[in-house]
Specification:
Layout lengths: L4 H18 L6 E9 L8 H23 L4 H13 L20 E7 L5 E7 L5 H11 L4 E3 H10 L13 H16 L12 H4 L6 E6 L5 E7 L20 E3 L4 E7 L1 H7 L1 H12 L3 H15 L3 E7 L4 E2 L6 E8 L4 E4 L5
Length: 342
């Protein structure tokens, strides 16, 4: 018996509705960080903590708004990081730490998990928002990384806003540089001494901001931006602009942004190491991230990472005193955390 056309149409529509109802919405969301390091409740006033939480919330919510309206993970990463680069509390953009010459020297990187395209810049002095230049390198050049004067020449060709280095500098960072130089001058290193064993020396090696995102199309992206370490010398570059160390994203596994003592994160290849464990061992994001941070700790380094995988699971492990961090997911889960608990 053949169904009449109206009945057949109704049955077809009903079946389609059932099929659609059976398909859960794809998860999406993002995680941000504002740096890991020596962050104690005793030294962070209630007022200052509230200011940090407000800035982190603004960054997180700006990035999530991009995802909620169907925007790309790349756009969300940029939106979140630009806010942190513009805020003087964080070691990226305005408020970046000073190098040994008393100027701000900035690094950043970004990676597209869909295509594995990546862009990075290092050692720039006049780029207001370094993360946007890193994206331009990825999308508008044949290269992955540009450094120093060459990166700034490229920026001028692309019409980027150039600012005086004084724009980035703050009085708080000048005081930190003076303290670091005093510490350095008074130190008497021996064969048994290492800055890794010196709690005061460690605090000058932290900072960095970053974001990882998963959009509604299932694409991942990661970005990281930093001023590096206080009192750094000789054109030093840390892990933040190094693809596979400070930043990595692949739709096959996860997106990662790192923060901490860059020399150790480079040696471990932190961001790629996490993704590799997921790809080759079938490890979960949480287990892989924890294992990689343990490797950093075994070498004597510390810091943390943020990550999100293709299914929307997140991880934020760290082995330092704290890490400014936050997340917002389409499931409704959201938080801003600073210390070991929250």
């Amino acid at each position: 018996m053949k169904l009449s056309s109206p009945i057949l149409t109704a049955v077809t529509l009903f079946a389609a509705q059932l099929a659609g109802a059976a398909q859960p919405a794809k998860p999406y969301g993002l995680v941000i960080h504002g740096g890991a390091g020596v962050i104690s409740r005793a030294e962070l006033s209630v007022e200052k903590e509230a200011e940090y939480r407000a800035a982190l919330s603004q960054s997180r919510d700006a990035g999530y708004a991009v995802l909620a309206r169907g925007g790309t993970a790349l756009d969300a990463v940029i939106a979140a990081i630009v806010i942190l680069e513009n805020h003087p509390f964080f070691n990226a953009g305005k408020g970046a730490v000073l190098n040994a010459d008393g100027i701000c020297e900035l690094d950043a990187s970004i990676m597209d998990g869909r295509s594995l395209a990546a862009g990075a810049i290092a050692g720039v002095h006049h780029i207001k928002n370094p993360i946007t230049l890193a994206r331009a390198v990825m999308e508008k050049s044949e290269h992955v990384m540009l450094t120093g004067d060459g990166a700034e020449r490229f920026a001028k060709q692309q019409g980027f806003e150039m600012v005086p280095n004084e724009y980035f500098q703050t009085e708080n960072r000048r005081k930190q540089l003076e303290k670091a130089k005093t510490k350095e001058a008074s130190a008497r290193p021996t064969s048994q001494w290492s800055p890794a064993d010196d709690a005061e020396a460690r605090q000058f090696r932290y900072g960095t901001v970053g974001c990882v995102a998963l959009d509604q199309a299932g694409n991942l992206a990661a970005g990281t931006s930093t001023g590096g370490m206080t009192n750094k010398k000789f054109g030093r570059v840390g892990d933040a602009p190094i693809i596979g160390a400070g930043t990595f994203a692949s739709n096959a596994t996860c997106a990662i942004s790192a923060t901490g003592w860059g020399e150790y994160f480079i040696r471990v290849g932190v961001a790629r190491d996490i993704a590799a464990q997921m790809e080759y061992k079938g490890a979960s994001l949480a287990d892989a991230a924890a294992a990689t941070i343990a490797k950093v700790g075994k070498l004597g380094g510390d810091g943390g990472v943020i990550g999100i995988d293709r299914d929307g699971h997140i991880a934020m492990p760290f082995n330092s005193g704290g890490m400014y961090r936050g997340y917002k997911l389409s499931t409704g889960a959201a938080a801003i955390e600073i210390f070991g608990g929250k």
